[in-house]
Amino acid sequence: MRALLTGLFMALLSLPLRAEDVTAFTLKNGLQVVVIEDHRAPVVTQMIWYRAGSADEKAGKSGIAHFLEHLMFKGTDKLASGEFSETVERQGGDDNAFTSWDYTAYFQRVAADRLDQMMMMEANRMTGLQLLEEEVLTERQVILEERSQRIDSDPGAVLQEQVRAALFQNHRYGIPIIGWRHEMEGLSQADALDWYKLHYAPNNATLVIAGDVTPDQVKALAEQYYGPLEPNPAIPARVRVKEPPQMAERRLTLSDSRISEQSLTRQYLVPARKSGDQKQAAALLYLAELLGGNPTTSILARDMQFGAQPKAIWTSAWYGGTEMDYGTFGVALYPAPGVELAVVEARLDALLADIAEKGVDPEAFERIKTQLRAGEIFARDNSDGLARMYGEALTIGLTLEDIKVWPQVLQEVTPADVQAAALLLDRKQSVTAMALPEENAE
Amino acid sequence: MMLRVFAALMLLALPLRAEIAIQDVTSPSGIKAWLVEDHTNPFMSLEIRFRGGTSLDDPAKRGAVNLMTGLIEEGAGDLDAQGFANARDGLAASLEFRPYGDAIGVSMRALTENRDQVVDLLNLALTQPRFDQDAVDRVRGQVLTGLAADAKDPGTIAAHRFDADAFGSHPYATSGDGTVESVNALTRDDVVAAWKAALAQDRVYVAAVGDISPEELGALIDKVLAGLPATGAPLPARAEYALKGGVTVVDYPSPQSVIQFGHQGIRRDDPDFFAAYLLNEILGGGRFGSRLMTEVREKRGLTYGVGTALVPLDHAELYLGSLSTENSKVGQVIDLLRSEWARLAKDGVTEAELADAKTYLTGSYPLRFDSNAAIANILVGMQMEDLPIDYASTRNAKIEAVTLADMARVAARILHPDDLHFVVVGQPEGLN
Who among A142, A259, A363 is closest to B304 (CB)? Predict the structure, then answer.
């Protein structure tokens, strides 16, 4: 990496893309290993990504993927309950975990010379988890409190949960990751262990090590600790259902005394990044940036937040495409006082129609392109972020090649591609949600 | 002008980034800065702090500094808001302006190849902001929307109520964002006055990390700050803490209550600060294994998370904590928090707890220094706290030096279970 950048005055466009030092290999038991070298600080991050997320759950067991994530910090055949985190902390490290629709991931960040012990413990809990009934029940209270705090106490979060439930008519992306409360209340020790045995195995995981390490070092340690683990031949294929043709747009309204100002959000069902074919996703990313990625210069901001009588206080748009099966494209509009939701919604639809018909401003397009290119340089400053990016992409079915070419795919997008992407935003495949203060409830 | 840039101190701060040291740089015009040179990636991060922040507000103009800070990037010189954003984005640069209670933070990230242009743009924003009336009204609208949301957010309600009851008429008693009334009444003249009061050379702190030499940084600092007034508004007086122990309930329709609790804390420059810091780490620091996480979450499942923190501000010191729990469990949780407070004040910590907390805090310290922006943030924070440039290399030794006897003495000194005040936002049950 350093050698490539010795000439500091190279023009931006001559900088190599995807210049981080990355090595990958697979152990005999099927564990995929990725090493990202960054020798600037004697620090290392270990991340293990399981190809098991909430969208892989069985009907009636929503929340089990996330519940197991919590329970993975309890005991194993070698570690007492809580000892995992205590050991990491005693080394001055930090550890945590997170669950999404498509994966569950665990990480520790420690001084580079402690990687040995981290690998030993992470390998141990891949197959050695032991759960006590009482601990499972107490932890179930914790995840119920988590749900109360993160979802039920926040009408905005409640509404977004409802939006996804309406957006996906058949796919489990519509079920909340944390689970529906009535199903969470019934999750048992047996449910947790069933899930664990079905999904936690070396041949269903990707190990990412980022920081002050060499591939040889990592290979030797991975062979030592993860190598002896038996693969599970019964790992289920990730067969996901498809959405039916969506024939009618859905509109939701939530009135709540805790909502302070009216707002409108819309989410569209759109394609995600696909292995070998990321062009549409790249164009959607540009579309989101141009439409509402900048609070001052985006199409929505210029049209609705400026001028003599601004229609909106705040606008934004985003694209989420790093998912296995479907992406989402979102827009949020906060109208100015006295402006009806219908007015800002009509403007949104007119602006989208305008992009589809006339295309986008070439100068604005070039600015996004430049920023995306520079973003690749800034990303190299954060090996943790790179570890996350690699782990997530590989776990949802993209390949190392897909990751490598992604910056290039982004640079090859044309304004015409963005114009075409606007046609993917079909209201029949969308949910529009209106949040209203209770006094304005219809 | 003669270039007067010194790289006087070259200290090996830590075994952090091998071969990298914190350099003390003085710009030709005499402004001090700390620099970590790192030419790995062709960009730099610059962090600037202006001491004072929203606490400089005239009480009748609460929210002026906040509104002004939001307007710095909304047009400067010949550029209107969109022209400024286009210029910044075309350079792939990042320029951020953030208001805090005791400071205004300015962050710049620039590629080496066009750094000079980014610096010019930042100087333009700081010294020639336009404060166009339409921009003032637009950002005011955004602030008001935020205030309306805050008024219905239980966590914010709890924090604001605690501050209001704790600090009387001091600026700390109210939100730096202002109130609906005060923000609605702010004029362009108020914004200009806040700008002159808050952004001045007599209160500036600078740190830089990345692809830049000390000489280049010295020149850069002078270019960024050229044209700012020499002096700004006087800093506010000390804030007197007025809260007594007890419970305040704010009715709020939710299945869960949000609780903010605390009492007075300890000054950052107090000789007992490190013992207090270790004490907090053991009681309610960020880790899973803290006493409060163990008692409230792990053993009883009463919350998703509970944390406490020492909050040494410029003009007051607090010791604060917060958590959420079901309404029916509020009485039980408050009793538990009080008893954990009392147990620690009376019995202190065990030798094993102290050893574990020391290993964690000393081991995790280097992990914070993990990107250009993170390091620049740490360095500018050290300067604001008046710490020496070799602090990073002596800090762990100060933690190691704390003894079990220190812990017992400081626990009795700073933990006052009877003084704990709880603000409960929700519909709690089980309160005495």
Answer: A142
| B141, B258, B304 ranked by CB distance to A146: nearest | B304
How confident is the model over B95-99, as a mean pLDDT? 97
As a whole-number percent, the residues of chain A with pLDDT over 70 amount to 95
CB A176 within 8 A of CB A3: no
DSSP state of B297: I
Same domain, B146 and B265: no
The predicted pLDDT at position B20 comes to 54
φ and ψ at residue B406, rounded to 5 degrees: -60, -45
Contacts of A259 in chain B (CB under 8 A): 152
CA dihedral A215, A220, A222, A224 (to 10 degrees): 180
188-247 of B, contacting A, C-beta below 8 A: 211
pLDDT of residue A21: 86
Nearest to B370 among A259, A337, A384 (CB): A384
The residue-averaged pLDDT of B38-45 equals 94
Domain that holds residue B367: 246-426
Q: Which fold has domain A250-440?
A: Cytochrome Bc1 Complex; Chain A, domain 1 (3.30.830)
C-beta separation of B123 from B72 below 8 A = no
**Among the four given CATH numbers 3.40.50.880, 2.60.40.1170, 3.30.565.10, 3.30.830.10, the one describing domain A15-225:** 3.30.830.10
Q: Which two tokens stand for residue A267?
A: 């989410």
Q: Please, how many CA atoms are within 13 Å of residue A75, restricted to the half-sphere of its CB?
A: 11
pLDDT in tens, A141-179: 999 999 999 999 999 999 999 999 999 999 999 999 999
User: A5, B40: Cβ pair inside 8 Å?
Assistant: yes
What's the rounded mean pLDDT across residues B163-187?
97
What are the structure tokens assigned to B81, written together?
Answer: 């808001």
CA distance B205 to B48: 6
pLDDT at A182: 98
For residue B147 the two structure tokens come to 């205030």
What's the CA gap between B173 and B168, in Å, rounded? 6
Cβ pair B251, B154 in contact under 8 A: no
Measured in degrees and rounded to the nearest 5, phi and psi for residue B40 equal -60, -50
Domains A15-225 and A250-440 equal at CATH topology level: yes
Burial category of B167 from C-beta neighbours within 10 Å (exposed 0-12, middle 13-18, buried 19 and up): buried
Residues 6+ apart with CB under 8 A from A233: none
How many domains does chain B contain in total?
A: 2
Task: Specify whether B268 is located in the same domain as B148.
Answer: no
Residue B46 to residue B221: CA distance in whole angstroms: 9
Out of A235-249, A355-369, A407-421, B363-377, least confident range: B363-377
pLDDT of A83 > 70? The answer is: yes
Q: What is the mean pLDDT of chain A?
A: 93
Which DSSP string corresponds to A78-132?
SS-TTHHHHHHHHTT-EEEEEE-SS-EEEEEEEEGGGHHHHHHHHHHHHH-B---
Q: What's the helix, strand, coil split of chain A in %, to 5?
A: 45, 20, 35
pTM of whole model > 0.90? yes
Walk across the sheet containing B10-11 and list its strands.
Answer: B10-11, B22-26, B32-37, B204-210, B43-51, B103-111, B94-99
Question: What is the average per-residue pLDDT within B144-166?
Answer: 96
B235 domain-assigned: no
Residue B74 is assigned to a structural domain of this protein: yes
Q: CA A390, CA A399: separation in Å to the nearest integer?
A: 9
What CA–CA distance (Å, rounded) separates A99 from A174? 15
Burial class (CB in 10 A: 0-12, 13-18, 19+), A12: middle
Give pLDDT, residue B12.
31
- The reported pLDDT for the residue numbered B7 is 31
Contact call for residues B71 and B58 (beta carbons, < 8 A): no
Which residues of A are part of the catalytic machinery? 69
